[in-house]
Fold this sequence. Notes:
With 305 residues, this protein is mainly α. The protein has 2 domains: 18-142, Tetracycline Repressor, domain 2; 172-305. Helix content is 66%, strand content 0%.
Amino acid sequence: xxxxxxxxxxxxxGGLAFGVLRLLRPWQWxxxxxxxxxxxxSGKVFEPSAVAQALGTxxxxxxxxxxxxxxxxxxxxxxxxxHPTKRSRPVASxxxxxxxxxxxxxxxxxxxxxxxxxxxxxxxxxxxLYLLNNALYSFRLKHVALLDVLSIALGFVLRLVAxxxxxxxxxxxxxxxxxxxxxxFLALGxxxxxxxxxxxxxxxxxxxxxxxxxxxxxxxxxxxxxxxLAYAVFTTSSGKNPTLIVTLPVxxxxxxxxxxxxxxxxxGSEAPDLLLFRRWRFPACVVVWLALYYAVDYAxxxxxx
Length: 305
């Protein structure tokens, strides 16, 4: 990447074990909590076997995603060395050798596939598609505007589908649609944050060359609207209790509050997973939404028909 000053990597920091830990990014495993959505939406949250299957699916996706992070860091090491913050990554800084990173990526990918197959063939298929999607992203798609964010969104959809099929349920078109648009919205927010930071530093990087700030603002608004509409239709037309419409205001607030933060140039908006945890309002939205959804879908609260 051309942003930042200097092209040499900083001296290695920390030992090899700590470098490997940073390479695998366990703090990003929170994304795989989406694998638990299936057991919640299917009404099997009180069935120990279903919960165990969902947790196992989240675990194998965590292992596989860590392999993907190792592959990305090894592939991007030269560009990362010219980045003001990414040059401290384990491979770029020299703490972890590229060969070790590639080896870990392969071992974790195979372990994830084996674990997925032990859960079910359907979960293994989702993992294989997840790996294929990420391989395409790592080698090509992350440099192609629109295809890059669609690839990121697809990764979240595959997590969701894997969690649903793991508990023996066929995913509905509505839950897939809602997840796709919400993930696309977050991915576009990430690109918008990256573009603003790049412009502020008077730099450019290949992954952002196909975007403009105005264009991303339009796409963000469109994705936010699509996500909200998809969820609104889900609450009333999916065959579930129509009273689920009471959860819609929480979703609307969460989506638009996040969009406002991103478009206002909030520091760290290029990392939505971290930004969402730094602001109390977003975890609060999740808690309120879960409570309302439970009251309607599990406790049978009925206000509308």
